[in-house]
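Journal club prep, notes for RB
We'll compare a predicted complex against what the paper describes. Inputs for the 2-acetamido-2-deoxy-beta-D-glucopyranose case:
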Amino acid sequence: MRRRNPCSYLNRRLQIVASLTTFILFSILFLGTTSEDNPYLSKVPYGPQIRQGTTKVVGRLPSIPKELPHVHVNTAQWLNRLDPFQAPAHSPPPADQPDSREGDISWHTDWHWMNPFSTVVTQDERAVLPPLKPRPPVYTYFDAGGRSRDERSRKAEQEVLEIWRRAWWAQGFKPVVLSRSEAMNHPKYKYIKDLKLEADMELELLRWLAWASMGTGILCNWLAVPMAHYEEPLLHFLRAGEYSQMTRYDGLEGGLYVGTKEQVEQVLEMALRSTLITTAQFMYQLTPEDTFHIEPNHDGVAFYSSKTIKTLYKSIDSQLTFADTRGDGLTMLPALINSHLHLTWQNSFPKGIAVLKPLAQNTTYMIDPAIDIARNLSTCTASPITTSCPPNRPNCSPCVSRTPMIITTPPIYRNDSAQFLIGTVPHPYTLQSLIHNKEDLDVRFIRRKTSRDSWVMAATRELLGAGISSFSRLASLKDAVASEHGISRSLWLTAEEPVYLRTEKDLQELDWIFGFRIPRHPMKDGKSETPVPGPERRPPPPKQDFDGPKPDEKQLLQQMLLGEKAQDMIKKSERHGGQKSLILLRNAVEAWNMADTEVWKFVRAFNARRLVERQKWQKEEDAYLGKGLYDRWKETLSG
Ligand SMILES: *[C@@H]1O[C@H](CO)[C@@H](O)[C@H](O)[C@H]1NC(C)=O
Ligand SMILES: *[C@@H]1O[C@H](CO)[C@@H](O)[C@H](O)[C@H]1NC(C)=O
Ligand SMILES: *[C@@H]1O[C@H](CO)[C@@H](O)[C@H](O)[C@H]1NC(C)=O
């Protein structure tokens, strides 16, 4: 029997598919034609439906902040872009932005990110992401120079600084640890040194000098951490970065100040002229009463000052008091603060964690990494004082391992603020090979046997009703991933590259997203010297929901094999350096499942950018390592 050359067969087919898809897409999007007799159109929504969807989407474009007067979204103008006679194809694709690539993943930042399809904006494979929110700096001053300390205290202080940085970073800030070097940059440094003040007062003044030499921002004690949900009003205010008044916070002593550079200089000026400078302890005691606005109502920041520890955490305080147990006391602090951060996060989601699981018959294996993260998040973090509450939330409900956070596996996306969501988005190739239990998909099979955008249609079934096109559902999903509301309430993964789960380093990256160390090691001997009552007990895997019979062992194994095959295929068909025939096949699958592909690309790019942003910052911070004359906080790590 004569064999046909599969390549020539493929090529011709593919050409037809590609041109047909392009043509159909343009017809639908721009002309709104409906032709009943075209077999490829019978399954996709008609023009008017999509028009309606587009208008809705445009109505939902994010409002543009006032501080950016040069950017404005004009709905009519934007709609014009969809007009075929405006020749959109003639404008060149926007240029590459800095730091917008990570391996094969590339993205473009634009206010039009809610546009259902990124290609409309970028005209290439780049995904369009919302602009990164600028991170206002939070400064802390750490100077351990003079004090004589033992090794354990140094280590504990270093851990607290790491917790401090992680917590503020996760809340959208840029934490900066200042040292004596910054204070020395200020012209008044020598003058203050010559005053020969008490150590405490000198520290307070140097702290302000360091702040003044950096400029406008937030000055925060390194024992003060944000302890609230992302959208808590104080954190929201601090993130906005506009500080009109020199402010301190009632009950936080000298733990938190905000102000502009001019105001900081003024306060310093006044303080240095004060006669109380030899007796006072805090800056605000040296200045006239109306210098600081005192904010009475706030509960977003927890300050573990010695006063707080004395009243709330007596067992730590009793050890801190004596020189020979001071190290033990300090060693308990990092674990205490970390457990409170985790607890506060858990308390923000009274309805627990939802692990999204559409098409449940086929996706059990796929959501395994998400379940793993969810279980670890619902584990109770060990704390040196079990069932203690953070200083700013005395009425917390402590984590009890007998009744851990609930984990559910809903088949559809629901917008519920009381629940944290972990979503796993598969590439359409992965999903179709799972649904059809078939490891080698080809173009013919895809076109004849598979329905379009299965994942988006299934995941958003409830959200918008069954009648609406997959295209208009895209905006809601993108909103769920990347909006202010979504960022703090969800974590999204792609099924093929669980970016966060490869190595211990990846797992630490997750900690930076959540702002605390996620429990992931069953307590080991010698690892923690903290007296921990009872082990951290990891809750069992949740009972999962299925929309049909539960898959048996054999089917689960099959899912795993198919998943790995698909992962391999995705890797081998990357645009840069992939195999040509596989790239063509992947393009065909992606063209057939445009909405599924769009969400997948969006989530992948969103995660990659988040990683790049943090690692770039980490690199900048590392540049200071060991550069300071006095001990930079990092040096305490190396001993
Ligand atoms: C996917 O689900 C269908 C039933 O909906 C089942 O027939 C098929 O075997 C499943 N495939 C895998 C790989 O589990
Ligand atoms: C979810 O609800 C909030 C308000 O409760 C809203 O701001 C947000 O846009 C909604 N997200 C989606 C994806 O519908
Ligand atoms: C979850 O915890 C287990 C050990 O309890 C660990 O093996 C796994 O890597 C952790 N996963 C994540 C995502 O933290």
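Talking point for the session: The longest strand covers residues 420-425.
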